[in-house]
């Protein structure tokens, strides 16, 4: 279009009118092509069924023993639910922040009043492998892929992972029941 | 595109462009094929259907690739995954309706393209190879469309697949083997839909490859035109860009209005209600018909009360197209100057439409007799009318040049479409 | 040229006439009467209140035998549908139960969630067939698109066009079928089982007449008066409309987008036409169509 416009452009109102026509048409074509691209991109996003299936998930805590790690899935993602032992709670509270790669106090890793329960996503923050529980030097997890290590509340203690295991939205509906995907009664977006 | 390339007037300007062009003359190739390429100046809108067809090949491939991201080619899940696309995937309904109706529009355009070719005698020398490549594209399109229609795994999909694979079983000696190789089992089933999906994904790329050859051949011989005479001087032609480009883009956009009408307001009109019933191997729909674009051939298949005979005639009806360049004995290409054959052309067209209508009717009584008469006429057109009319017809006087058909005899127009000498190469061959 | 075209058209017409047109060949039913639907035509929209009533008919009557496996509870609150609130849908879903595997691998029931699909009345097709005299009642999800009747020439041409367009054959058929139960005409031989229905292909349908006057109590307005009559005619209209929505839940979005796309394309085509004219002006234009008078002069 640009070429055509250039060759035919002549001075005077006639030329200007024609240039405007060519420009408007070129813009129209560009808008049309752009608009057509949208449904294709949108169709690749999670579909309505997948979004709806990501509704909050209830986890019954009563059968979980001290020290045990339970795997659950929410929205297709692995989540660790870990019941800490008394010793682990004490140890984790005592770790100085300056020894951490991604400093986070114990209180930021658990819900107030539920010190024994860690709920975190279960994929290493390096490249997504699943770290092995009860291994490594920090009472937590060690990733078999690239050697990252996490402590008992999922804080990264040895690289290459850059950040702590993220915490999904969840809430305790009672002492023995928690709901993943819900923060204080509200469904997560 | 060597010949067209010889006419290229592209001269790289920048040092980078020169460096690249001396190693791979890609820009020059595109320039000579789609910018400087001389186009007869008398082309009418029937000549924009090539561009429309390329647009639809693109649309079908893109929507198809996107649908494949959500589709599940298994007998157990295919129907539901198509409904999943229709209901849950964002704009999935748009992708699917565009793909399903796109196939129909593709055939609308290809039929206009084919009948335009027959009317203006574009199949005649020196364009036989160009034309044969077109017949191959048409065959590949038919195969692709059939395979695609089986994929939603509704009743029409299942029974269409059953009927067509049974047609192949009519081939003597190897028929049964071919059939069971297609099925991957003892009947149409899960392996069948799985491989049909694979082939349905493959064939469009083969079409794209043959389209490249088709365009290449076109640019060697140059385009035919309503006058059916070659470009003789630069005044007979205009450069492809901007003249043909802008006209093609306009025609494509107009055709898209029709396409959009079907997608948004009549998305199921060209389909069949029974294909919304999941495949059921124990119940055949009362009235099974193929998609509309196969109906004339379906009528020919059913016109013969013999399995092998029907199959031979049906395939023959497509293959006979390939012999048109040698069956037509006329020295004049365009029907514009063939007063007798022109009438036969329209009768042939009406006969083809009638066959299509008969293909949708139940195979009983008067419909069968009518199908037989129409089938006989279809073949007679190629085998009798084409050779004989060419021998006995006195054509009208053909104009001396393309320019004359635009301006009338003896008149001059201001300005030549082409840069001097640019049109020389294809004209010599025409 | 023109003569040839006329001749071809005449030949086509003659051929169509001579082969004997029969409006209802091959399907052995009577064509359903054409009804008025709020969702027909280019600007058609579903009537939310009607879809809600239709869902009630489906839930209270049809769902006892007919599944609707592709429709989820959440769909009832999605845009372009019956327009229930998310809370209503959640409450509705909880009145159903669905089966899932517990941690020990055995089936247990839990209340349905909005994301679940309508639980079918029978565990599988075989059970459905066995409970219904050997023939499973068809699933309702896309039934409104899976049923049609033949319109014949030339009506099928008008059916595709703007303003005379018609794509509600399936809905009309469903409505007609529900009103089509009557005594068999004299001389019609009924087989051992089945019921006579005027509109069913072959007239013998396995389903007994499902609806009767006053069978379903519709919600009343503020004054306690019925909003619509509680008749078979009304029930069948409502449930057919509901099935039309279930078969094509994005119909309203489709028609709305279509309008914008087509208007855009028309404007763009207009612009392109003038650009094309401008470009071709320099070379004096080309032949549009055929010019028979031109070659007659040779």
From TrEMBL, chain A:
Its EC number is 7.1.1.8. Its cofactor is [2Fe-2S] cluster. It catalyses: a quinol + 2 Fe(III)-[cytochrome c](out) = a quinone + 2 Fe(II)-[cytochrome c](out) + 2 H(+)(out). It is an enzyme of class 7 (translocase). Pfam families: Rieske (PF00355), UCR_Fe-S_N (PF10399). One of its GO terms (molecular function) is 2 iron, 2 sulfur cluster binding. Gene3D superfamilies: Rieske [2Fe-2S] iron-sulphur domain, Single helix bin. NCBIfam families: Rieske_proteo (TIGR01416). Belongs to the Rieske iron-sulfur protein family. The Rieske protein is a high potential 2Fe-2S protein. This is Ubiquinol-cytochrome c reductase iron-sulfur subunit.
Automatic annotation (TrEMBL), chain B:
It is found in: Membrane. The chain crosses the membrane at residues 45-69, 94-114, 129-151, 158-182, 202-222, 243-264, 308-327, 339-360, 366-392. SUPFAM superfamilies: a domain/subunit of cytochrome bc1 complex (Ubiquinol-cytochrome c reductase), Transmembrane di-heme cytochromes. Binds 2 heme groups non-covalently. Keywords: Electron transport, Heme, Iron, Membrane, Metal-binding, Respiratory chain, Transmembrane, Transmembrane helix, Transport. Heme b b566 binds at residues 113, 214. Belongs to the cytochrome b family. The main subunits of complex b-c1 are: cytochrome b, cytochrome c1 and the Rieske protein. This is Cytochrome b. It comes from Methylorubrum salsuginis.
UniProtKB/TrEMBL annotation, chain C:
Residues 100-135 are annotated as: Disordered. Binds 1 heme c group covalently per subunit. The keyword Metal-binding applies. GO terms for molecular function: electron transfer activity; heme binding; metal ion binding. Residues 49-182 form the Cytochrome c domain. It comes from the Bacteria. Its cofactor is heme c. Pfam families: Cytochrom_C1. Heme c binds at residues 62, 65-66, 207. The chain crosses the membrane at residues 257-275. It is found in: Membrane. Residues 124-135 have a biased composition (Low complexity). InterPro entries: Cyt_c-like_dom, Cyt_c-like_dom_sf, Cyt_c1. GO terms for cellular component: membrane. Residues 100-116 have a biased composition (Basic and acidic residues). Residues 1-23 form the signal peptide. Keywords: Heme, Iron, Membrane, Metal-binding, Signal, Transmembrane, Transmembrane helix. This is Cytochrome c1. It comes from Methylorubrum salsuginis.
């Amino acid at each position: 279009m640009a070429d055509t416009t250039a060759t035919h452009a002549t001075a005077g109102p006639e030329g200007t009118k024609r240039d405007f026509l060519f420009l408007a048409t070129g813009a129209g074509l560009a808008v049309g092509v752009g608009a057509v691209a949208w449904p294709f991109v949108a169709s690749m996003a999670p579909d309505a069924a997948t979004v709806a299936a990501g509704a909050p998930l209830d986890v019954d805590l009563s059968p979980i023993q001290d020290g045990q790690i339970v795997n659950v899935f929410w929205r297709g993602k692995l989540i660790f639910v870990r019941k800490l032992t008394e010793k682990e709670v004490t140890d984790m509270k005592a770790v100085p922040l300056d020894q951490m790669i991604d400093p986070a106090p114990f209180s930021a890793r658990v819900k107030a009043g539920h010190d024994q329960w860690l709920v975190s996503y279960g994929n290493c923050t390096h490249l997504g492998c699943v770290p092995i529980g009860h291994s490594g030097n920090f009472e937590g997890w060690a990733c078999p892929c690239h050697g990252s290590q996490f402590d008992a509340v999922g804080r990264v203690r040895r690289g290459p992972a850059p950040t702590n295991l993220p915490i999904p939205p969840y809430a305790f509906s009672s002492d023995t029941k928690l709901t993943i995907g819900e923060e204080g009664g509200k469904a997560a977006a | 595109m060597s010949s067209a390339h010889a006419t290229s007037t592209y001269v790289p300007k920048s040092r980078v462009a020169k460096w690249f062009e001396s190693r791979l003359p890609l820009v020059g190739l595109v320039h000579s094929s789609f910018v400087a390429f001389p186009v007869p100046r008398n082309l009418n809108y029937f000549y924009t259907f090539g561009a429309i067809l390329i647009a639809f090949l693109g649309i079908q491939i893109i929507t198809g690739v996107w649908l494949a991201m959500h589709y599940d080619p298994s007998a157990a899940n295919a129907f539901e995954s198509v409904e999943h696309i229709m209901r849950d995937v964002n704009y999935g309904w748009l992708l699917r309706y565009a793909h399903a109706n796109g196939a129909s529009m593709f055939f609308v355009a290809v039929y206009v393209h084919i009948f335009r070719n027959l009317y203006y005698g574009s199949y005649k020398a020196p364009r036989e190879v160009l034309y044969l490549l077109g017949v191959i594209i048409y065959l590949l399109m038919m195969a692709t469309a059939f395979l695609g229609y089986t994929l939603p795994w509704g009743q029409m999909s299942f029974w269409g697949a059953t009927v067509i694979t049974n047609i192949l079983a009519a081939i003597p000696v190897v028929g049964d083997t071919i059939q069971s190789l297609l099925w991957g089992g003892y009947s149409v089933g899960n392996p069948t839909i799985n491989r049909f999906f694979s082939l349905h994904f493959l064939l469009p790329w083969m079409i794209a490859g043959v389209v490249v050859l088709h365009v290449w051949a076109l640019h060697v011989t140059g385009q035919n035109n309503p006058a059916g005479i070659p470009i003789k001087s630069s005044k007979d032609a205009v450069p492809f860009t901007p003249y043909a480009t802008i006209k093609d883009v306009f025609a494509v956009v107009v055709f898209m209005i029709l396409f959009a009408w079907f997608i948004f307001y009549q998305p199921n009109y060209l389909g069949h209600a029974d294909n919304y019933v999941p495949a059921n191997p124990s119940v055949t729909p009362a009235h099974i018909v193929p998609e509309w674009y196969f109906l004339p051939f379906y009528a020919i298949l059913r016109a013969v009360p013999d399995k092998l005979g029907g199959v031979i005639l049906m395939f023959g009806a497509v293959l006979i197209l390939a012999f048109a360049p040698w069956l037509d004995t006329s020295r004049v290409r365009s029907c514009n100057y063939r007063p007798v054959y022109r009438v036969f052309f329209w009768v042939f067209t009406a006969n083809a439409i009638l066959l299509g209508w008969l293909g949708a009717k139940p195979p009983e009584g008067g419909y069968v007799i009518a199908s037989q008469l129409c089938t006989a006429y279809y073949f007679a057109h190629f085998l009798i009318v084409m050779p004989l009319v060419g021998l006995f017809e006195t054509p009208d006087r053909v104009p001396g040049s393309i320019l004359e058909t635009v301006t009338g005899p003896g008149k001059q127009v201001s300005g030549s479409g082409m840069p001097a000498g640019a049109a020389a190469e294809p004209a010599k061959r025409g | 040229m023109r003569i040839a075209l006329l001749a071809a058209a005449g030949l086509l017409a003659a051929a169509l006439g001579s082969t004997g047109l029969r409006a209802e060949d091959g399907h052995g039913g009577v064509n359903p009467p054409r009804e008025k639907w709020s969702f027909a035509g280019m600007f058609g929209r579903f009537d939310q209140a009607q879809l809600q009533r239709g869902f009630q008919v489906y839930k209270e009557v049809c769902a006892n035998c007919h599944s609707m496996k592709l429709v989820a509870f959440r769909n009832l609150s999605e845009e372009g549908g019956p327009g229930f609130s998310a809370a209503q849908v959640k409450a509705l879903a909880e009145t159903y139960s669905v089966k899932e595997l517990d941690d020990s691998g055995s089936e247990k029931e839990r209340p349905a969630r909005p994301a679940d699909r309508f639980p079918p009345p029978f565990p599988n097709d075989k059970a459905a067939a066995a409970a219904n005299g050997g023939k499973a009642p068809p699933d309702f999800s896309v039934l409104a698109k899976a049923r049609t009747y033949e319109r014949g020439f030339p009506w099928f041409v008008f059916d595709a066009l703007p303003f005379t367009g018609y794509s509600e054959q399936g809905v009309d058929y469903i409505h007609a079928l529900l009103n089509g139960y009557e005594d068999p005409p004299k001389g019609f031989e009924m087989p051992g089982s089945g019921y006579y229905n005027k509109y069913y292909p072959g007239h013998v349908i396995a389903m007994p007449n499902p609806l009767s006057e006053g069978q379903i109590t519709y919600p009343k307005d503020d004054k306690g008066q019925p909003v619509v009559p509680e008749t078979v005619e009304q029930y069948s209209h409502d449930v057919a409309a509901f099935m039309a929505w279930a078969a094509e839940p994005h119909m309203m979005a489709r028609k709305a987008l279509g309008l914008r796309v087509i208007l855009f394309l028309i404007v763009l085509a207009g612009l392109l036409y003038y650009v094309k004219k401008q470009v071709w002006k320099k070379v004096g234009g080309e032949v549009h169509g055929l010019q028979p008078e031109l070659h007659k002069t040779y």
